[in-house]
Design brief:
109 residues, five-stranded mixed sheet, two-stranded antiparallel ribbon, 31% strand
Amino acid sequence: MNMLGEIRRKILRRKYEFSKHAVDQSIVRDISIAEVEEAISGGGEIIEDYPDDKYGPSCLILGFTNAGRPLHLQCSYPSRTLIKIITLYEPDMDIWADFRIRKQDQRGK
């Protein structure tokens, strides 16, 4: 099974945890646990990979809730017993093109 499939399987089996930062961000950004699970179960795609992240390998996943809300979830690799959701947010269209690709830095132009 591919990495996204393993992450999805663990999240849908509730084999995950939130970092303190992710808990704080879910409250501030009004993102529910149900929305996190919907965004993963509806498919999703890995849009960035961070194999050398200082806290351990992770990746950024784009998924959509049942209501169509786009969410970015940064998750640990599935090699952990529990997937750690490191952060989560709704992508800002000033930063992201099509929710998937970071726009070029326009400062100083």
